[in-house]
Design a protein that fits this description.
- The protein has 7 helices and 4 strands.
- By secondary structure, the protein is α+β, with helices and mostly antiparallel strands.
- The chain has one domain.
- The chain has a 4-stranded antiparallel sheet.
- Strand 3 and strand 4 form a beta hairpin.
- The longest helix is centred in the last third of the chain and has 27 residues.
- The two termini are about 25 Å apart.
- The mean pLDDT is about 90.
């Protein structure tokens, strides 16, 4: 499963199927009158390079996407790997479950990029200083680099890419997940 966010929009994709949920303003009172529009299409989410620094609203949607993803993955752990969309759709997280889930995600694109960079550079350090001949040192060094990588990823994600998501953000992410889990063969 893959995910992506934009302001007022959350995407989830499984394979080549992408669904999104977006807030649509109704009339002049945009803040009070909003409905959720969902849709599904074939293809990937519309990945874009995000402006730095990220606006707080985008960070909130990003945190909501992580919380919903994490709570969903926790709920589907007991299911067999061959579970179909209809079985997965029954495990949609509730708002309370999403609220209590962690907003940190190991599978976030940002984390993967940061982690890969730190791991590659960290693993190369002993080579450049000719310390790579001792296997005990290498084991300890790599364990240290993995811990540093995890802590750095957590810190960067929490401080630069996530903000406290409220119920409005979580509900939108739940709707996007619900949409991608619809089995069109059974909905007709």
């Amino acid at each position: 499963m893959d995910a992506y966010v934009e302001e007022h929009c959350v995407y989830f994709s499984i394979g080549n199927k992408t669904s999104y949920a977006r807030y649509q303003a109704l009339g002049e009172e945009e803040q009070k009158m909003q409905e959720i529009k969902t849709a599904t299409y074939q293809g990937s989410p519309p990945y874009k390079v995000l402006a730095r620094p990220m606006p707080t609203l985008l960070k909130q949607y990003h945190a909501a996407e992580h919380k919903v993803y994490n709570s969903f993955m926790q709920k589907i752990k007991p299911l067999p790997q061959q579970a179909g969309l209809s079985e997965l759709a029954q495990e949609l997280p509730s708002l309370d479950e999403a609220r209590s889930a962690s907003s940190f995600s190991l599978f976030c694109g940002t984390t993967i990029f940061i982690s890969s960079t730190i791991l590659l550079l960290g693993a190369a350090v002993p080579y450049f200083f000719k310390l790579s001949t001792n296997p005990y040192f290498m084991f300890a060094w790599l364990a240290f680099i993995v811990i540093v990588t995890m802590l750095a990823s957590y810190y960067i994600q929490k401080n630069f890419y996530l903000a406290q998501a409220d119920d409005k953000h979580l509900l939108l992410a739940i709707e996007a997940l619900k949409e991608v889990l619809k089995d069109e063969r059974n909905d007709s």
